Amino acid sequence: MKFWRTLARLARYAWPLYAASGLLASVMFYLVPLLPGLVVKAIFDRLSVDAPGSADATSAAAISAVATAAADQTALLWLVAGIAGIGAMRFTSLLGAVAAEQSLQQVIRTLLRANLLEHILDRPGARPLPSSTGEAISRLRGDVEAVPNFLSWTLDPIGQALAVGTALTVLWRVDPRLTLAVFGPIIATVTIVNVLAGRIRRLRLASRESEGAVTGHIGEIVGAVLAVKVAGAEGRVIDHFRELNARRRRAVLRDAALSRFIEALTYNLSTIGIGLLLVLLALRLRTDPGAFAVGDFALFVSYLEWVTVITSMFGQYLTNFRQTDVSLKRLAELVDDPVPERVLVRHRPVHLWGDLPPVPQPARAPGDVLSSLTARGLTMRWPDGARGIEDVDLDIAGGTVTVITGPVGAGKTTLLRVLLGLLPSDAGTIRWNGRTVDDPAAWFVPPRAAYTPQAPRLFSDPLRDNLLLGLDRDDTAVATALRRAVFDADVAAMPDGLATRLGPRGTRLSGGQAQRAAAARMLIREPSLLVFDDLSSALDVETEARLWDRLFAIPGRTVLAVANRRAALGRADRVVVMDGGRVVAVGTVESLLETSEVFRGLWQGAKGAPE
Amino acid sequence: MRDILTRYLLPLRSRAALLTALMLADISLDLAGPQLQRAFIDGAIGGASAGDLVRLAALFVGLAFVLQGLMVAAGIVSTELAQTATNQMREDLLAHVLHLDLAFHGRHTPGELIERIDGDVATLANFVSRFLLELVGSALLVVGVLAMLFRVDVRIGATMAVFVLVAIAIMRGILHLAVPHWAAAREASAQLFGFLEERLAGTEDLRANGAVAYTLRRFFGLSRDIWRRNLRASLLGSATGGTSVLLLFVAMAISLGWAVVLVQNGSITLGTAWLLFSYSLQLDGLLSGIARQLGDLQQAGASITRIRALLDERTSLPEPAPDHARVLPAGPLAIDVDAVSFAYADTDGGNAPTLHDVTLTVQAGTSLGLLGPSGSGKTTLTRLLLRLLDPTVGTVHLGGVDVRDVPTADLRRRVAIVTQDVQLFRATLRDNLTLFDPSVDDTRIRAALDGLGLGAWVDGLADGLDTVLAPGGGVSAGEAQLLAFARIFIGDPGLVVLDEASSRLDPATEARLTAAMARLAAGRTVVVIAHRLATVQRLGAVCLLADGRIVEHGPRAALAADAGSRYAQLLAAGLEDLDAALGTVGEAGR
Question: What is the pLDDT of residue B298?
Fold first, then answer.
């Protein structure tokens, strides 16, 4: 991953904000604090003329000096007032800096998240993410924040160099030898930070990984709260959590110890620098007793402070650079592309202003109506060698009902997913009306096809939103879909009807309700090809019967369904029997009963009452 | 805020004391610095011996190195303190959330809960480890600086004391302005991550239904909310930071003003003038330190408010008082549901099935099949048995004991359930089966798996029982269902509820389960929510539900023999032409 090129693309994306944030937060921020040092030097220079010695010097010379200084006092107090004026200037520039920086960061965060979200939705839908959902969320949160934070600091080195250069030039003109003494500690710091940098990267990675494990566990546990509760496993789950927490504590501690050391070192450099200054001055006074000027000392200390603060910020910058690099890599892991940054930092509107993007509505072309669907040699093997599908052929004629059946683990769901592009295939071709489908994932969407998975996922939104998912249809169309999915009576019984909020992941619906809601979600898209995976698994017999009747009565539909029950099998024009990832028999129920041993077993089991 | 901090920090007071000691040492050294500089300046101007000046300078350098050690030590101790305290808090929050009832979980997405358990606590960890160290340290140093200024001149001390008080008052005022805005910003962020969590879990559904563009549009809407709220909160936050910087310049001006006046009238030396300025510069460190941490305080304040709100959530299913708690009898448990009605209290939960005046008895050791259309209340009824819900009216007794009098942990040990949605964790197969109970030995686990015919499957896994199950890969729905059964075999419940347990199994696998069920049923009470007559026909009694009421209930054999019963109609229809008959009986049932 090209770190700087990636950041440059991000900077280009929001360049006006980037420039504003650079000017205010990176240049003004560092230069303005150089002003007070000059004023303070002027004040102490004048004061040392007035008060050459200690307070008990009550000689006539001192008294006359006080008299001549009286007129000078007004000028001195004006200088003092100037300090407050510089403060006001700094206040306003800070506010502007924050506004620019925050806007920039939010724009970039949204861009990164939008790119990642779209990419995750675009990848084969059934392929698991490289990490748990909770883990992915932790990356979309923490790592996505780290990148734009760093981006808004990328111009800081320029402001830092300008400020340090100016400070050093001013000091050099006062005293080159002392100025060199200031440099020592600064160079030392930068070296040490660089030496330690490799270690920081490793520690930070370990620390963030342990955090991800904790977040992932919380997500899984609260997602499975019912299972945990009914098993009475709350205590044990917490024990496991405690262990993950302890691991995280150790990792964070190691990370913090090193960061702290570097942080404290850079802070203390200013004190060490003053110490060096004092030693050098003392040594010089040994040979030249009149060589000490308080005003110069004041200027040195003032700039020393600010220059070390800048150095420490540069040290943090380096640390942040390493950490951001880690974050960027963790984001790249979510991207399934040989050049991850191509996806990650793709320019696109982020819609923080103006209208939200319209949702394109599917338009039906003549070729979208299915007349024939064929698959040849479809093969998919899991990376770990586990069961997949092997060399599957499939022929579906328009307007027919095809049911795929087979024992657990036969590869029925995998076949549907590979066909629809929800899992990548290793071999095989798919033809729609004779035309080869190159990208099944993009092809098998409404209005051509739609799919209801085995365990459909619904969302906490209102029911209507869950069904439409942005589709522009009126309530009459919704009502038709609900009736066809045998979900109309359930909705009628809900006090809020279509406005009912379904709760997290749709959990307020029972399993059977969720399946029928998902079926309605598919039907309202009026696809030519309806694909169901074990649609009726959580339905009682009567609802199931009614559902199949209504589905098969939809005019012009082609159905491809995974099912094991007679209600579905009995209505199929064609039954495909799978076992061990292969198609073992194809035919009508009658012919299969005669020819297929596997099918006979399934049919017997699917019978209502085997007494 | 104080209650939460004392609750978690008080047990750690020895470490807190160590931290305080480190901080005090640190502060004394900070205060000593300007004094050494004053001595040096007055010595250099007043003609002190070069040897004395070199010694002063060397002392100053040594001080800087001691400071380094102290700061690192303080940093480590404070991080350790924060991690220990917040780990405890995370554990307590997760435990608390797990004890809350399902109605609570119905209102909050897992993503939102992650944000509240982890995100808010992480903000708080940052607060404890950095803010306490820097802000408390800063406050102590301010007091030290003021004391030093009073020693130089009472007027200067008094001016600066007034200044510090006014400054703190101003800062506090601005601080209060920003807190609600930070809360709003965090709320928007929690909503976004709740949204993302749900969508990432449903990529297949979104993809195959062509809803990618819609999902992105929703995402942009939520991001826009965050941006607006964040900007508002940050601007108010930076106003606090900016004010602190402004106040620092005022402090410098005050000290320099006094220095000018006092040096010119000869009452202080130049060294002392430098001392005054030097201490005001130290306020710089302090005030900008405070400013840096103010954002964290604002966020931590918002986080603590939300953490406390979460801890204040109460389950609607209270534990029995210890002196009132009763124990379930050993062996199979009889069920006695007496005149139970159930309705969700909150109106927005009203779409879940309710129950009306349900009375039902099941003898210990017998079995019951629940039949009825979706939404008829079957799941609700079984949730009452597990005390995942309490009836609105009426009582539920198991083994003659009111379930409300049984401590939840004891109840769950004796009542087991297989739900239709089997949840697996990213953990080893062993932990998935025992739900993280290390006391279960492997022979028991193996026996349960072998009994379900999963022995060969486990042997085929790379690491056997230690194989880490990854969500979404490797385990089919049917296997997951079998694993859920294995969980039950490992426990030893007196009552087993199978809620749509047979839903995703092919007939061959189900036959295996049926056999296993028969073994499990020996010496236990069993309630099955069934969708197939085949399942019911192995059970002792049948109960038909519709619209939350019992339509029919009795011994299966008797109902089957009574030609007028609905069950017999179903049965007759099912044996001949199952599908058509179910339709008509179903219509009649409505």
Answer: 66
Residues linked to residue B544 through DSSP beta bridges, in sequence order? B371, B552
A and B: number of Cβ contacts within 8 A: 634
Angstrom distance (rounded) from CA A518 to CA A451? 9
DSSP, collapsed to helix, strand or coil, labels residue A606 as helix
- In this structure, which amino acid lies at residue A84? A
Burial A208-220 (b: 16+ CB within 10 A, else e): bbbbbbbbbbbbb
User: For domain A3-344, which architecture applies?
Assistant: Up-down Bundle (1.20)
Q: Does residue B515 sit within a domain?
A: yes
Do B370 and B231 lie in one domain? The reply is no
Tokens of A145: 């924040």
> Is B111 inside a domain boundary?
yes
* pLDDT number for residue A224: 81
Look at B270 and A51 and tell me if their CB atoms are within 8 Å. Answer: yes
d(CA B172, CA A304): 32
Residue type (1 letter), B539: L
Residue B33's closest CA among B285, B247, B289, B288? B285
The reply to whether B126 and B193 lie within a common domain is yes
Hey, what are A219's tokens? 């997500």
CB nearest A240 (choices: B50, B436, B589)? B436
Question: What CA dihedral angle connects B523, B525, B527 and B530, to 10 degrees?
Answer: 30
Is some CB atom of chain B closer than 8 A to the CB atom of A539? yes
SS3 content of chain B, % helix, strand, coil (to 5): 70, 10, 20
Per-window interface: A 390-419 vs B, CB < 8 A:
405-410, 413, 417
A121–B114 CB contact, under 8 Å: no
Chain B residues whose beta carbon lies within 8 Å of the beta carbon of residue A216: 426
Amino acid A434 reads G
B421-430 mean pLDDT: 80
Residue ranges per domain, chain A? Answer: 3-344, 366-606
B431 touches chain A (CB under 8 A): yes
Residue A389 has pLDDT above 80, yes or no: yes
Give, as one character, the DSSP assignment of residue B320.
P
State the residue range of the domain holding B13.
2-312
A366-606 maps to CATH 3.40.50.300:
yes
pTM of the model: 0.69
The answer to whether residues B360 and B271 belong to one domain is: no
Based on the structure, what is the number of domains in chain B? 2
Whether residue B260 is predicted with pLDDT greater than 70 in this model: the reply is yes
User: Looking at the complex, does the CB of residue B515 fall below 8 Å from at least one CB of chain A?
Assistant: no
DSSP string, A398-421: TT-EEEEE-STTSSHHHHHHHHTT
Shortest distance, CA B413 to any CA of chain A (angstroms): 6
Whether pLDDT at A348 is above 80: yes
- Coil vs helix vs strand at B330: coil
Task: Examine the domain organization and report whether B217 and B305 are in the same domain.
Answer: yes
CB-CB: which of A298, A453, A542 is closest to B582?
A542
Q: What is the mean pLDDT of residues B184-209?
A: 89
Measured in angstroms, the CA of A9 and the nearest CA of chain B are apart by 21
Comparing CA positions, the residue from B69, B74, B21 lying closest to residue A268 is B69
> Which residue is closest to B194 within chain A, CA to CA?
A504
Q: Look at residue B324 and tell me if it is in a domain.
A: no
Q: Which two tokens stand for residue A190?
A: 């930068």
Mean pLDDT of chain A: 84
Residues of A in contact with B231 (CB under 8 A): 99, 102-103, 106
Contact predicate A552/A571, CB 8 Å? yes
| B286 and B381 housed in the same domain | no
A316, A225 in Cβ contact below 8 A?
no
Q: Is A232:B412 a contact under the CB 8 Å cutoff?
A: yes
Domain assignment of residue B442, yes or no: no
The candidate with the shortest Cα–Cα distance to B362, out of B526, B568, B552, is B526
Residues B301 and B345 both lie in one domain: no
